[in-house]
Amino acid sequence: RKEVEQDPGPFNVPEGATVAFNCTYSNSASQSFFWYRQDCRKEPKLLMSVYSSGNEDGRFTAQLNRASQYISLLIRDSKLSDSATYLCVPEGGSSNTGKLIFGQGTTLQVKP
Amino acid sequence: NAGVMQNPRHLVRRRGQEARLRCSPMKGHSHVYWYRQLPEEGLKFMVYLQKENIIDESGMPKERFSAEFPKEGPSILRIQQVVRGDSAAYFCASSAPRGRGANVLTFGAGSRLTVL
């Protein structure tokens, strides 16, 4: 089983749509979780941390389900500028030294 | 705050040459991570270092690749005898010491290696 699994997409949505991405991870010992955003050929940038209670940052909502080892990201009222690849990132790996493991990413294309 | 600085941004090497990629972490960060991204693929963890220590090198290829983070100066990822399959974007990231915003990685703009 891969350490992180994401649907690569692409997700093609119109402006204003709500879109949700899901991710599963294999390391039950992971303690920290993040969503990063990567624009084409550029460096990943932190979008938001993911907390057990769920958290919201403007149009973005992240949820964590530890029992199912599942993380989600919801984007409301999509903007053209949201077009990017969204990377699910749990901490971990078998040695649990704190390194972050990046999923392959889910590509979002927001159309006018 | 200049952020994470990587150089060179672009590097072209012929097969068999050596590539050296440098990374200066953000001010106040003492942890450095190297990731590799092949074309059309995700980021793969290579190595995690603190000053003068390799903490986790489980993602490093067994041969030709090495990394260091000396007491003074930038972290260096060294690839000896490069092959075409080494062509990729190499991203460096840094984080604060554990317990103070640890695991929130800030990335550099990457070094793109092309092997002819």
Summarize, please.
The complex is a heterodimer of chains A (about 110) and B (about 120). Chain A is an all-beta fold and about 110 residues long.
Question: What does the model show?
Answer:
The complex is a heterodimer of chains A (112) and B (116). Chain A has strands at residues 4-6, 11-14, 19-25, 33-38, 45-50, 55-57, 60-65, 70-75, 84-90, 106-111. By secondary structure, chain A is mainly β. In chain A, the strands form 2 sheets. Chain A has a 5-stranded antiparallel beta sheet with strand order 1-3-8-7-6, with no helix packed on it. In chain A, strands 2-10-9-4-5 form a 5-stranded mixed beta sheet, with no helix packed on it. Chain A is globular, with a radius of gyration of 14 Å. With 116 residues, chain B is mostly beta strands. Chain B contains no helices and 11 strands. Chain B has strands at residues 5-7, 10-13, 19-24, 31-37, 43-50, 53-56, 65-68, 75-79, 88-95, 106-107, 111-115. In chain B, strands 2, 4, 5, 6, 9, 10 and 11 form a 7-stranded mixed beta sheet that branches. A 4-stranded antiparallel beta sheet of chain B has the order 1-3-8-7, with no helix packed on it. The chains are: A mainly beta (112), B mainly beta (116). At the A-B interface, strand 5 of A face strand 5 and strand 10 of B.
